[in-house]
Amino acid sequence: MPVYRAPVEDHLFVINEVLELDKQRDLPQFGELSADLLEDILTNAGKFAEEVLQPLNQSGDEEGCHYENGVVRTPKGFKEAYKAFSEAGWGALPAPAKFGGADMPMLVTLAVGEMMQSANQAFAMYPGLTGAAYGALIATGQPWMKENIAPKMVSGEWAGTMCLTEPGCGTDLRLMKTRAVEQPDGTYKLSGTKIFISGGDQDLTDNIVHMVIAKIPDENGQIHDDLSTVNFFMVPKFLVDETGKMGAKNGVSTGGIEKKMGIKGSATCILNFDEAKAWRLGPKPTPPKPGEKRSASAGMAGMFGMMNNARMGVGIQGISIAEVAFQNGWAYTHERRVGHALTGPKDPSQSADLEIVHPDVRRMLLHCRSFVQGARALAMWTTINHAIADSDRPDKDTGALLGDLLTPVIKAFFTDMGFECANLAMQCYGGHGYIRDNGVEQFVRDARINQTYEGANGVQAMDLVGRKLGRKGGAAPMAYLSVVGGWLGENEKDEALKPFTAPVKRGLDILQLATLWFAQHGLQNPNDAGAGAVDYLRLMGIVSVGWMWAWMAKVAQAKLATKPANAEFYEDKLVSAKYWMERMIPECPMLFERIQAGSATIMALEKATA
Ligand SMILES: Cc1cc2nc3c(=O)[nH]c(=O)nc-3n(C[C@H](O)[C@H](O)[C@H](O)COP(=O)(O)OP(=O)(O)OC[C@H]3O[C@@H](n4cnc5c(N)ncnc54)[C@H](O)[C@@H]3O)c2cc1C
Fold first, then answer.
1. How many CB atoms neighbour CB 40 within 10 A?
2. Is 454 an active-site residue?
């Protein structure tokens, strides 16, 4: 049976000792978050994840969801767990207090979310998407929706979904066919088919509030293959009035659920909207003036806000799955006996040593641990930047640039590494890893979707290179290079820290050169930018996590000088930090070399296969 132990101690190390939460008390939402309260929340969330969600992970995967007579049922135990989850208030953490929430910063929500997802990713998606949906409703909805609909989602009584994808489009939303026609009372009739909708139907809640994007026909009744008339709508499964009272069934039906590779306990639904009553959330699209080009409608803003938060959440799923896979790989390699240590038997009384003696096994495990803990620090640092962006602090603009720049890196680099780590943990089990009963192959299957949904990772890389690098004259990469370079400059004279600062500096210099390369070549030949984007995103991910490790090494060294009782905890940090410097930073020149190869060979693919 797979195991999971919530890494609360590590979360507290990152938040309190490295990022020094105490110094962020002036940020809205951080003022009330005392160290005791934080520890209390994380400890209880970890306990819930370990005791309630983890035991349902493997059984949920085996049983999957059921679709019968138009109704979806979740696996055994999910309903009770969902009730307990909602009653404990875990789904309400980020919501404003006036809507029944706990007003917790994203930092806390993501730390709690990481543990819930490690324990049971399929389950955690139901409340995760509900959080994204009520966040969007609170940001864009009318007062009656915020006051009477959102609180029911915050409490977990109702759930929410994000409905973007259609049979003909996922990435390229310009091609969507779903349309919404305005009615005399100001509501809309929305028709079309959405596919792959997570939690599109389930038996956990009485109602589901779908956040749907659709096109409003223009002044001539036409829809266009662009984003000019796209808007964002609230479409409840059961109709609601302005007091939040639930009424008759709306025109939304479930066409089926997908049979899929992983996250089998999460219902992935086909939803048919047939003149469903819908409420527009964004401003009405305005027709272009004569001679003016159609531009993306302002109604898209709500959707982008929802997707940005969701991208951070999916990035965290990469950490979650790598953490739980690592823990199981660790446990297995400390029980399994195979061969002898290369330097001679470690345990001569036994016919074989424990698997953990082998250098390659240690490499696989250290790869996971070094990623998980470094990535966790980067995710937390990025959420602080998001919080700074939402504040009135003088560093507000820098916070916004950094949060924006790193969001696609967190989504794509973390989920690529999450899959990589799940696969390595499975390798630690030998052939037993391939056998379902042992539970580790589930992590590989569950991890795979994280690289695709919420924007495929290649698309995230294009967002980074095509949008984020050049915007405002390159302000975001300049802010990044200045913050990371500034930190390295402040610490470069520290001899003991050199094994960490010097490799990160090498990586940062390469990242700077690569950024300049994109500025020069991307405009001349967009295919060069497209061909190198994934390598660039990985380069930025490796340097950023490397910086976190240098920072954590500094904290660990200072702590070790005080001879703490838990010295092993800090010694382990230095080992993981060194791994990143020795084994990951060396990828930087290789990635830059690939970037500079440009696109000619890649674009010759057709000729090569003809
Ligand atoms: C289990 C599961 C759950 C999901 N949950 C939801 C949900 O709750 N709500 C929802 O709306 N959707 C959901 N999705 C849909 C998911 O977000 C889409 O599948 C994803 O965005 C990709 O869209 P697509 O499948 O249409 O692929 P396409 O858009 O056809 O893209 C195919 C591939 O082409 C490449 N590609 C496309 N465009 C570019 C580009 N510009 N640059 C570089 N490469 C490119 C990428 O490699 C991509 O993987 C879910 C999907 C699954 C499988």
1. 11
2. yes
